[in-house]
Amino acid sequence: MSANPALVQTFNNELIPAPFANEVFVLKRPKVGFELNGVQTRNGKWATTGALYLSNVRLVFVAEKPDASGLAGFDMPLVYISKDKLNQPIFGCNNLAGQVWPAVTDGGPSGTLPPHSFKVLFKEVSLSRHCVPAVLPLAERARKADAAQRRASLAQTAPAVEELVHKAFVDPSDPSTIYLSQPAAESQRLQYQPTYAPNYGRDEKYQPMAPHH
Predict the structure, then answer these.
(1) C-alpha to C-alpha distance for 167 and 170, rounded to whole angstroms
(2) Bigger pLDDT: 116 or 134?
(3) Is 64 exposed, middle or buried (0-12, 13-18, 19+ CB in 10 A)?
(4) Please, are residues 52 and 31 in contact by the beta-carbon 8 Å criterion?
(5) Tens-digit pLDDT profile for residues 157-199
(6) What integer pLDDT is reported at residue 161 of this predicted model?
(7) Is residue 47 within 8 Å of 182, Cβ to Cβ?
(8) What is the pTM of this model?
């Protein structure tokens, strides 16, 4: 998980998370609520609205407006997500809740830092027929790959992503965008592993998310 992941501009002039090597984006869900604790905001919590992106590597939330602290987005590696649960309450909106280990020094399942609790709230319409169902099997696949001493590369998860995309049923009332082709040009793909803001965990300001060209 990282604060303010790098962004790139798509063919449609939309800012999206910059894809890593072998990363495949599956879908985008706009206008979701997002709640996260243990962050460097004034009260240690973050509750906002924005877009959620799902790839074979991570969930990425990008806020519509940055927090006063400068926090504007968060990465959540699928392999670090735990206790994830789909909630469909009688009152209130459907949501996906869970915990995610911080992917920083002393973070992760073997680290000393506690996990962050998160919640994704689907406010606009009822739950997508493919949004959350796509998240859960990808997260499980990522965890199994990690448990197998990371023998499976990111490229090996691509067929599972393609299968989900081809089987996806697009409900006209569902605001999700299914990526039948990748939204960013290959020239915009990052050639290195995730890097985190150097001041993360050190002060009360987050580095801005500047588009990579």
Answers:
(1) 10
(2) 116
(3) exposed
(4) no
(5) 455 555 544 444 445 556 677 777 788 888 888 887 655 444 4
(6) 52
(7) no
(8) 0.76
Query: Running DSSP on this structure, what letter comes out for residue 13?
Result: S
Helix (H, G, I), strand (E, B) or coil at 173: coil
Q: Which of 96, 177, 174, 169 is nearest to 135 (CA)?
A: 96
How far is residue 57's CA from residue 40's CA, in Å, rounded to a whole number?
Answer: 25
Q: Which residues are CB-neighbours of 17 under 8 A, at least 6 positions away?
A: 5, 6, 7, 8, 25, 53, 55, 60, 62, 73, 75
Quickly count helices (H) and strands (E) in the chain: 2, 11
Residue linked to tokens 């997500």: 81
Neighbouring residues of 133: CB distance < 8 A, sequence distance ≥ 6: none
* Pair 64, 48: CB distance under 8 Å: yes
Q: What is the CA radius of gyration of the chain?
A: 16
Reply yes or no on whether the pLDDT at 78 is more than 70. yes
Which residue ranges form the domains of the chain, and what is each CATH number?
Answer: 7-179 (2.30.29.30)
